[in-house]
Inverse folding.
């Protein structure tokens, strides 16, 4: 008879696997069924401009009178400057297109004002530089971008929008 050394019996914990698998699949099912993808945002064709103009904007009227709508003009003279300022709570308080103030609560008025600039053959504007207050809400900015897209579409021009953040020390 051979003698073997008997190993001492070790009590291992008895972990039920089935309930853990059930819970894992329930969680997986819950997250798969309740997942809602974020809506996709629109795509905009933007040609970014330098932060500072290459030519003084004061020279724009003289250049526009002598050579309107010429693509030989410097970029800064073909750019329609627009300023968006935020009010309380990040709401849109002021819209200034070139030097004209537009009512901030009327998207159609903004579209019509933009059409005046885009459809006028004497004005060389073919792109826009939007200077945005850093406190402006994103939804407010998107409303303005929608008005620009509508104006460019009505004028049958490709939308060219560029963005610059306003400095905190720029006065209103």
């Amino acid at each position: 008879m051979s003698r073997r050394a008997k190993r001492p019996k070790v009590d291992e914990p008895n972990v039920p696997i089935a309930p853990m698998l059930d819970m894992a699949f329930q969680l997986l099912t819950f997250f798969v069924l309740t997942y809602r993808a974020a809506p996709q945002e629109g795509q905009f064709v933007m040609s970014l401009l330098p932060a500072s103009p290459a030519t003084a904007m004061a020279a724009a009227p003289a250049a526009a009178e002598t050579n309107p709508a010429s693509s030989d003009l410097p970029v800064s003279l073909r750019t329609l400057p627009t300023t968006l300022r935020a009010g309380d709570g990040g709401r849109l308080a002021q819209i200034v297109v070139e030097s004209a103030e537009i009512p901030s609560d009327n998207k159609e008025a903004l579209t019509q004002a933009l059409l005046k600039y885009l459809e006028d053959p004497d004005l060389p504007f073919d792109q826009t530089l939007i200077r945005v207050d850093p406190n402006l809400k994103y939804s407010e900015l998107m409303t303005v971008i929608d008005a620009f897209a509508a104006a460019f579409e009505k004028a049958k021009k490709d939308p060219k929008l560029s963005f610059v953040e306003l400095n905190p020390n720029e006065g209103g």
In short: The two ends are 104 Å apart (CA to CA). The beta strands are 79-86, 92-97, 100-102, 127-132, 161-165. The CA atoms of residues 68 and 122 lie 5 Å apart. Helices lie at 17-34, 60-66, 107-119, 138-154.
